[in-house]
Amino acid sequence: RVHGEHVMSAGELRDRIPIEQPTKTVGAGGQPLVAWTRYAARFAKVNWENGNEREGQGRMKVWNGWRVMLRYDVKLTTEMRVVFGTHTLEIQGMTHDRRRRYHFLSCTEAT
Length: 111
Prior knowledge:
The chain is mostly beta strands. The chain has no helices and six strands. It has strands at residues 15-26, 32-54, 60-71, 81-84, 87-96, 102-109. Strand 1 and strand 2 form a beta hairpin. The N and C termini lie far apart (40 Å).
């Protein structure tokens, strides 16, 4: 095992998730529109993480954070989104292991 590498256990990627990509068009009135089309469906491990983040003047903002692990995909970008059941997850950031076997996505739920 290489330091910092994730060791995969059998059945860890058990959730089948669609990954969608934006298709940008222009509406009849000239306004930009975004339609979401399926890029791929992948097996993944999806975990919900929650917490609070402090905003200005002592106010708290509640957020739902999601961590998604899936096999590495060279074409995956942060412009894409993940659908997990009834949750649409926007990819905020992503990393991968050193051998580029797995992607680790940090996502927030779309509002």
